[in-house]
Amino acid sequence: MYGQGRPFAYQANQVSTVNKNKLVVMLYDGAIRFCTEARDRSVRGDIAGRGLYVSKTQKIVAELMNSLNHDKGGEVAKSLHSLYMEATRLLTNANLKGRREDFESVIQMMTEVRDSWNEVINGGAPAAAAASPAMAAAPSAPPPGTARFAYRA
To answer: Which fold has domain 27-150?
Structure first.
């Protein structure tokens, strides 16, 4: 189903047994990891590798965007949608031009929102959103208590 062999079976089990909010955090982790790899491949001049990892990052961002529940998520879903559109634009530019700044922007964006989701999951206030000028200017992560509504059930 998810692949063959034990590592894939472990991943399939991990994904199928985790709660939805933690799954969102896992998607952010994957986007950050793949975008970092794309940046590193670009620095080394590996254009094909850059394209591969940009594509993987874009697929995760698309999945995050497609799973938003705009009916229940309201402004949170709208803000996250804008954030994902900006990430997609930056990733496209990064893939075409290989600009390190575009990769860094996406990595920072995804890291800050992921950290805010972790705060929500752990019951704290999203400290990253309050402390970061980038998060103040960009669409924000979900406020406490609204995370369960931003994504489809």
So the answer is: Four Helix Bundle (Hemerythrin (Met), subunit A) (1.20.120)
Residue 4: per-residue pLDDT: 57
DSSP state of 99: -
38 pLDDT band, cuts 50/70/90, is very high
CA distance 109 to 118: 14
The encoded tokens of residue 47 equal 């254009």
C-alpha closest to that of 116 among 86, 152, 79: 79
**What are the two backbone dihedrals, phi and then psi, of residue 68, each rounded to the nearest 5 degrees?**
-65, 140
Boundaries of every domain in the chain:
27-150
For range 85-104, the mean pLDDT? 97
